[in-house]
Amino acid sequence: MVYAIVRAGGRQEKVSVGDLxxxxxxxxxxxxxxxxxxxxxxxxxxxxxxADELAKVSVEAxxxxxxxxxxxxxxxxxxxxxxxxxxxxxxxxTRIKVTSIA
Length: 102
Description:
This protein is 4% helix and 63% strand. The protein contains 1 helix and 10 strands; from the N terminus they run ββββββαββββ. 14% of the residues are buried. By secondary structure, it is mainly beta. It has one helix spanning 51-54, and strands at 2-8, 11-15, 20-24, 33-36, 38-43, 46-48, 59-68, 72-78, 83-89, 92-101. It has one domain (2-101).
């Protein structure tokens, strides 16, 4: 089984060919292809972590859609002072499909 650990959006994801992965927003419209930098490659029993060998590895993925994450509500409250603050946040995400690891 071949899989790779790639750096995507400040995190590392374990991916293999055909996987659907949700990562932080990457530039590109739906249908475009992107390259992800590999941190580690596992091909059966062979594990590759050397930087010069990983420079030859290319992990390509197709952008399926740009989506927004779940709404996060942040509330601050201090007792007896009347202080209340409410803030919201939604992450910008991209769903990708890994097409090749070479």
